[in-house]
Amino acid sequence: MEDKKKRNKRVCSFCGRTEDEVEFLITGLNGCICDQCAEQAHTIVAEATEAKNKAANQFHLDEVPKPMEIKAFLDQYVVGQDDAKRYLSVAVYNHYKRLMQKDSHDDVEIEKSNIIMVGNTGTGKTLLARTIAKLLKVPFTIVDATVLTEAGYVGEDIESILTRLLQVADYDVPAAERGIVFIDEIDKIARKGDNPSITRDVSGEGVQQGLLKLLEGSIVNVPPQGGRKHPDQKYIPVNTKNILFICGGAFDGIERKIAQRLNTHVIGYSSVENADRVDRSNLMQYISPQDLKSFGLIPEIIGRLPILTYLNPLDRTVLRRILTEPKDSIINQYVKLFDMDGIKLTFQPEVFEYIVDEAVQFKLGARGLRSIVETIMMDAMFSLPSEKVTSFEVTVDYSEKQMAKANLSRLENSTN
User: Which of 290, 311, 354, 388 has the highest count of CB atoms within 10 angstroms of its CB?
Assistant: First the structure.
């Protein structure tokens, strides 16, 4: 009788257990599957899919974009800065070739060439990094050096840089070990003076010393969730040998160091002639590792950043191009914002000249353009979505009134 009852019960077609022996059965056309077999099947499918994706992510040298192709891609989003683009394109291309080196049968080992970019605020250092991340087939992350401190102090440990790279790579260690890290604001960890201080420089030279092992290439134990909030977590060993590091910083005031060095080299009868050759409006183009050392970077870290390039200051012509030419230019962004509300936004050509004139006065680079356009458009963005309008034209008179209104309100706030 019991055998008959058992035969009448539904049975999992995979493991043979009855519906009484499992939580529940999922019934199909010609069979059933229990919850445990379904979970196991899900795990198998997930592992197979992950393995397939990893295989798909493996790249071949024939598919790697050449330096000229990388620069052409950057040109679509970043105006000017040809020298920095060339250095960056070559560094990224050589990084790909280093990753393919395992297929080589000779004894020549190509060392990685970490890169450091120096330029005034708003000239496009971070934008270059974010733009090239769109093109890459390797994990890429941007970290801020200002939050890094020595171990045991408030802030983030050096290893948190690799934690973020692991997170981007979905904790795939082999993928993370061929990734690229952009360390922004590297100048903020400069030593405060040329002479070592007897007091603790918590976020300065100590952090630089901690970065050495990452830049050079070593096996680092990385906390997968950050170091201090989860002290009991299991560390993940990551080899930084094939991780390319790109550093960027404004190095505010380094022009004075460059000018001092150039003056010391101008000696003898040709001093006046040599002085005339120096472009005083763009001293950054003469930067050398010696200037970075004078600014406060230790020689060891400068030696591990062998490629040094600079970004030109943005003149009026470049600012005008930045405003409208790139794919995601500032003006195109606001046109898109209004278009989402069904409003066609247009600008008088003279408005662009007015915005550039204001930006030149602010001396904030491309970020100054953004803040000016935001100030001009704030009232329109507040009121127009609620009004039944289909188009809006920004004129010079409207722009001047909005800027004057904003400056007046700031003045009133400062006096209150």
Answer: 311
